Amino acid sequence: MHKEFLMGNAAIARGAIAAGLDLICGYPGTPSTEVLETTAKNNKGDIYVEWSVNEKAAMELGAGAAYCGARTMVTMKQVGLNVAADPLMSLAYIGVKGGMVIMVADDPGPISSQTEQDTRHFAAFSKLPCFDPSSVQEAYDMIRDAFAYSEMYHTPVLFRPTTRVCHGYASIDVKDPEEYYTHKPEGFEKDPSKWVIFPKLSYNAHKNIEKRNIELSDVFSEYHRNAIILPADPSCRKGIASHGISFTYVSEAIVDRSAPKLFKVSTPFPFPEKAAVEFLKDLDEVLCIEELDPVIERELTYVCGKYHLNTKIRGKLTGDVQTAGENTCDSVYCCIAEFMGWEKPAVKEMDAPPELPVRPPVLCAGCPHRASFYAVKTAMKGKKCVFCGDIGCYTLGNAMPLDMVDTCLCMGAGVNITQGIGRMDPGTTCFAFVGDSTFFASAITGAVNAVYNQADMTLIVLDNSTTAMTGHQPHPGTGRTMMGQVVDKVSIEAVLRGVGLKTVETVDPLDLETAVNTVKRVAEEKGVKAIIFKSPCAVLIKPEKPAVIDEDKCIGCKKCINSLGCPGIIISGGKVKIDSSLCTGCGLCSQVCPVDAIGGMDK
After folding, report:
1. Could you read off the pLDDT of 540-566 as tens digits, one per residue?
2. What is the value of pTM for the model shown?
3. Spatial strand order in the sheet of 385-388
4. Best CATH choice for the domain 2-222 from the list 3.30.465.10, 3.40.50.10540, 3.40.50.970, 3.60.21.10
């Protein structure tokens, strides 16, 4: 063993490698992304690593490998589990031969997600065991346990870190390479009675799953990471139940105090019922501190009823803990102080700090998506239009002054939402915007649906040749894989023509005049048609010479600012200036300026 300073996601990856990982696949999504990337960086060549086109594909790929006896991991964020839910639910019944860990990173806050989804509910819904680490060290250690239990019970297991575990850093103990677990997958053995799901098999599997989970509840009651910590004062009749990063906050809050009895729940499903009974004994009140939902609170309330215990359970359901958002050290301390009757620290009077400037997220300077949105907006000026967006950097096109995203639901949804609006509001010109990575992940079926059902819409594919929002991961259109292979690019244009689109045009959005004219012409056509705005992500290219404003020509109209909202164009001393540290020299502002006052770029 030796010490290393690691991010939580890196620790999970390194722990999986030490546990004998054979295959890892997933789809990028904050806060989960670095697990797969760290595995790729530390791969000696014996682990297969893949960014799959979406979470469903990854889940099914991981299952196939686990059928062969391999140790596999599938990575995603909480909303990605929705995409993978179909195979997950059936896989819970079929089971696996090798260890299969489904790493689902939850995002309380939410910090970078559409929802505050709690994967512990999905564990109960799918009837799969769930592991919930509370620190970077525990995440490293617990992943080994997750593989072991998966193999022991021939079932996939869920591994549920949250953002503060995933992105926290700590100096932890890690194994030396000679201590790694190694094994060789036996390969797939044909057995239709096991691997082919039929109603009779599912019925029998369901009975076995319920029986197994009762057994696991007892086993988890003895699991050393489900800890009962006795109070410093034996006469204290109050307790706190927590889990994950919230347990770390609880531990910090009670330092140097007459601490209550603690219950750390590391396996929220199956719930360690016997351990819970032991914890609740001789307690009058228990406060449950958890993210996001009152999972532990409801379980303890159930246990009290089942075993006729008089302990009062408090938490989110009783209004003692906030019902939404992530917990913090301060919020947890305040909840515990109120519960324990501690005196809260006095707040020192001081001058109010100055208000921080409002800094909403914006498209990067030089982002080609800004040009794409502006081209469509210019072309459709004066017309009744709807612009349906999607998940990606381009969701930021909703901000002023662009104001070009009217809807955003989930990945791939914009293509189908556009069709629904068009059916009910036929006088509207309908556009759907989708990025290149999202197109491959979940928008192709929407395009097929539109063609088959004779929709009238324009699909705008914003192709910046990467998965920009989550850190520039490769996808089928980039021509490379996470294993370092150079492969044939999957052509978006060929895919669209293959599913039946007759009009598919590719244009550089930074050629504004051509882009505007293309939108005008294509939008006039009936049926389903597409424009691919193709220009690389500004972060991936070497910037051109920054723009320069000719102050003698500038009339101060601020059209460049009011039309584009580019952070590289600023007001300084009452005049429009170019921030040369941000400007990439894309040239869009020079094409917008009505008096040709912007130039200087190398073109």
Report:
1. 888 889 999 998 899 999 999 999 999
2. 0.88
3. 385-388, 429-435, 457-463, 528-534, 503-507
4. 3.40.50.970
